[in-house]
């Protein structure tokens, strides 16, 4: 939490846009489908980084942060490539089963359903 502490010391204003609600506790700001896809891509990238820190190199290391891709097609290709390696090398048998907890929002569920198409079971 060093970044948060530094922001507090500097008296920065931090806004969580997903928590902006009206008086009835209904969200007023929503993100589109690309935010959900970027979140899923970044989650796979993060998993690769975390496992590498633990000494495990995985196909997820071939996935970059979402903002570095020039197009959604380029990102899908990277996820597909990682998926092909996982399928070919039976990676899932070594580190499975594992699952992720996902926010219960329509946009995130939509992105979660789309990306597995590019990552075979």
Key terms for this structure?
121 residues; mainly alpha; 5 helices; 50% helix; 0% strand; extended
| Amino-to-carboxy terminus distance | 36 Å
Order of helices and strands: HHHHH
Number of distinct beta strands: 0
Gyration radius, in Å: 17 Å
State the share of residues found in helices, binned by percent: 40-55%
Number of domains: 1
Structural class: mainly alpha
Distinct helical segment count: 5
Estimate the strand proportion: under 5%
Give average pLDDT, whole number: 76
Parts with pLDDT < 50 across at least 5 consecutive residues? none
The gross shape turns out to be: extended
Largest sheet: none
Summarize the structure.
With 121 residues, the protein is an all-alpha fold. Helix content is 50%, strand content 0%.
Give a written overview of the molecule.
This protein is mostly helical and 121 residues long. It has one domain (31-118). It is built from 5 helices and no strands. Helix 2 crosses helix 5. The termini are far apart. The model has no long low-confidence stretch (mean pLDDT 76).
Give the secondary structure arrangement, pairings included:
Blueprint: H1 2-9, H2 33-53, H3 72-89, H4 91-95, H5 106-114
